[in-house]
Amino acid sequence: MPNNKKKKLTPVQQEYQKLAKNAEPKRPVLTNCLRAFIAGGTICLIGQAVQTAFIKWGGFNKQNAGNPTVAVMIILSTFLTCLGVYDKIAQWAGAGSAVPVTGFANTMSSSALEHKSEGIVYGVGGRMFEVAGPVIVFGTVAAFIVGILHWLFNPSLGGGF
């Protein structure tokens, strides 16, 4: 709690805050980091195996194998979300399951599943971006800002500070 909020609390409230903080269970940070590392690494390993399969058996080169790999990972993540498996993985792995493509697909599909009773247009279509929408907006804005900075500080692009 910020110090400026503590100043407004009565002594009894401050004592309660201390008591509540001491009663909180300690978070297993090392275990959580290890689980996130294992889960995120496993998801990336699966993605790499899919990409290698596209290169070896699909006739793709290294540059062209990325798009179908992303599509397969999105489909796999959505399928596992529909079965309820991805949520169990996420409960165990924490942040490790939020690897960008699969985590984003999980967010979209779980939101769509949650609101499917409201209908295709208002439920699935309207609410699917409820959680993922801010990610898209801020990701787009960040990409725009980085692009402008790259243009400004790269003389070969016409900018050049």
Give an account of the 3D structure.
The protein is mainly α and 161 residues long. It has two domains: 9-127, no CATH class; 130-161. It is 75% helix and 0% strand. It has eight helices and no strands. It has helices at residues 3-6, 11-23, 29-57, 66-83, 85-93, 100-114, 120-127, 129-153. Helix 4 (66-83) packs across helix 6 (100-114) and helix 6 (100-114) packs antiparallel against helix 8 (129-153). The radius of gyration is 22 Å and the shape is extended. The chain starts with a helix and ends in an 8-residue tail after the last helix. 15% of the residues are buried.
Alpha carbon gap, first and last residue: 43 Å
Q: Rough shape?
A: extended
The biggest sheet amounts to: none
Order of helices and strands: HHHHHHHH
Question: What is the subunit arrangement here?
Answer: single chain
Measured by DSSP, the beta-strand proportion falls in: under 5%
Count of distinct structural domains: 2
Can you tell me the residue ranges where pLDDT is under 50 for at least 5 consecutive residues?
A: none
Tally of DSSP helical segments = 8
Index terms:
mainly alpha, 2 domains, 161 residues
Write the layout of secondary structure elements.
Elements: H1 3-6, H2 11-23, H3 29-57, H4 66-83, H5 85-93, H6 100-114, H7 120-127, H8 129-153
Helix pairs in contact: 3-4, 4-6, 6-7, 6-8
Give a concise summary.
75% of the residues lie in helices and 0% in strands. The protein has 161 residues and is mostly helical.
